[in-house]
Amino acid sequence: MINIAVTGARGRMGALIIENIGDAPDMRLVAALDISGIEMPAGADDVVVSHAGGIDAVLKTTSPDVLIDFTIADAAISNIRHAVSNNANLVVGTTGLEPYQDEIAEIIAGNVSAVIAPNFAVGVNVFWKLLAEAAAYIGDWDIEIVEAHHRHKKDAPSGTAMQAAETISRVISRKRLVHGREGLCPRGDEIGIHAIRGGDIVGDHFVLFAGDGERIEIKHQAHSRQAFAAGAIRAARWVMDAPAGVHGMDEVLGL
Ligand SMILES: NC(=O)c1ccc[n+]([C@@H]2O[C@H](COP(=O)([O-])OP(=O)(O)OC[C@H]3O[C@@H](n4cnc5c(N)ncnc54)[C@H](O)[C@@H]3O)[C@@H](O)[C@H]2O)c1
Question: What is the pTM of this model?
Answer without folding.
Answer: 0.90
